[in-house]
Amino acid sequence: MKMYQTLGFVAGALVGASAFAQGTFAFSTTAKALQGAKILDLYGVAITGANYLVDVLVKQSDGTFSQASLLKITTSGNMALAPVNPLLGLGAGLFSGGSILVGNIAPGAAATIKVIAWDVTSGATYDSAYSRGSQTFDIAALGGTGSPPSTPVAMANFTGFTVGLLIPEPSTYALAALGLGGLLVFRRK
Length: 189
Hints:
- About 20% of the residues lie in helices and about 30% in strands.
- By secondary structure, it is an alpha+beta fold.
- It has one domain.
- The model is unreliable at about 5-20 (pLDDT under 50).
C-alpha cells in the first residue's frame, strides 16, 4: 500500500508541475538585432518620454488578446505587469519592459503576442486613446525550457509600427451627414 501512495504522490506532483509550466519572452527592443524595430509617431519620429505608453498582450485560447496570464519577472520575484514608457535620447522608439512570464503557455510552445502603444494625451488607456497603434506577431518557441529554465526569448519577429490617429469608420461619417442633413431640413421649416 505504501508503494502505491508514493507512486500516486509522484504522479500527482508531475501532473501539477506540468500544469504550472510557464513560457517566457523578453518584452524589450533594446537587443542589437531589434534596434531598428522602433515605434514611430504619425510624422515618422520615434516616440519617446512620458506622453506615450507601451504594453503587451498575449492571444488566449478563446482568440482574444489579454494580459490575464502575464507576469513580469523581477529579481525579487514575479509582479503584475504595467505599461512602460519608451526610452529617451538615442533609445527613442525602443522600450524595455523586462522578462514576461506567460502563465497559460508552456515553455517551448508558440505564442501570438500583440504590442500596443498609445499617446496618453489622447486617452488614459489604449482603448480610449484616439492616437494609438499595435503590431501582432508570433514567437515560435517561448523560453523557459529545461532545468534550469532557459532564458526568455527575444521578440525576433517584432518589426515596429506607427502610432497614428484613429480614423472613424465610414458609417460614422454617414451618420454625421444624416444628422447634419436633418438639422438643415429642420432649420428651413
